[in-house]
């Protein structure tokens, strides 16, 4: 890994429609020497992710705007702007976005989650949440497994 500081490519070039959300890859594994992936997420009101588990990485959720209820294992925490929750690897989790939507930062360690986002998503045509007709690929569950995660419920 280089210790020379260099700006990352513009995030606008790496926006994806990802499971009903806008995902902007801010720092990839390649840019961090594999140490972490940083993703900015914009999610619509009421969106709920399926219960899932990451086997390779830990995940941090930081809410910039809006609110989200995050279930990690047996615990549920309600997060508002300026609040954080931690989802350790091997512990099932999911979240439900509040009534005003949510704007979040996710940090995943080690890096590599960006490759999953790129494979399971489509490039965003605009910096907005995806239109309703944009769905995950039919083989999304296989892609999830390939990247060291598992869907536990749909």
Q: Please, could you describe this protein's structure?
A:
The chain is mainly beta. Helix content is 10%, strand content 44%. The chain contains 2 helices and 10 strands; from the N terminus they run E-E-E-E-E-E-E-E-H-E-H-E. The strands form 2 sheets. Strands 1, 2, 3, 5, 6, 7, 8 and 9 form an 8-stranded antiparallel beta sheet that branches. It has a two-stranded antiparallel sheet with strand order 4-10. The chain is globular.
Write the layout of secondary structure elements.
Elements lengths: L14 E4 L2 E7 L9 E7 L8 E3 L3 E15 L2 E6 L3 E4 L5 E17 L3 H8 L1 E2 L16 H7 L2 E3 L3
Antiparallel strand pairs: 1-2, 1-9, 2-3, 3-8, 4-10, 5-6, 5-7, 5-8
Number of helices: 2
The radius of gyration is 15 Å
Biggest sheet, open or closed, and with what strands and sense?
A: 8 strands, antiparallel
How much is the average pLDDT?
A: 92
Structural class: mainly beta
Number of strands: 10
- Which percent range describes the beta-strand content? 35-45%
Low-confidence stretches: none
Question: What proportion of the residues is helical, as a percent range?
Answer: under 10%
Helix and strand element order? EEEEEEEEHEHE
The rounded distance between the terminal residues' Cα atoms is 38 Å
Note the overall shape. globular
Could you provide a short overview of the structure?
The protein is mainly beta and 154 residues long.
Core attributes:
mainly beta, 10% helix, 154 residues
């Amino acid at each position: 890994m280089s210790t020379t500081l260099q700006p990352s490519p513009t995030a606008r070039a790496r926006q994806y429609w990802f499971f009903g959300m806008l995902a902007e890859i801010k720092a990839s594994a390649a840019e961090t020497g594999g140490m972490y992936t940083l993703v900015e997420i914009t999610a619509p009101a009421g969106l709920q992710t399926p219960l899932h588990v990451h086997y390779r990485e830990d995940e941090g959720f930081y809410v910039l705007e809006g609110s989200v209820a995050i279930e990690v294992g047996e615990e549920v925490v309600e997060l508002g702007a300026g609040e954080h929750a931690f989802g350790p690897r091997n512990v099932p989790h999911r979240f439900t976005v509040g009534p005003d939507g949510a704007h979040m930062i996710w940090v995943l360690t080690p890096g590599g989650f960006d490759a999953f986002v790129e494979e399971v998503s489509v490039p965003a045509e605009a910096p907005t949440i995806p239109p309703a007709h944009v769905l995950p690929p039919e083989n999304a569950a296989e892609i999830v497994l390939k990247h060291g995660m598992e869907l536990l419920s749909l």
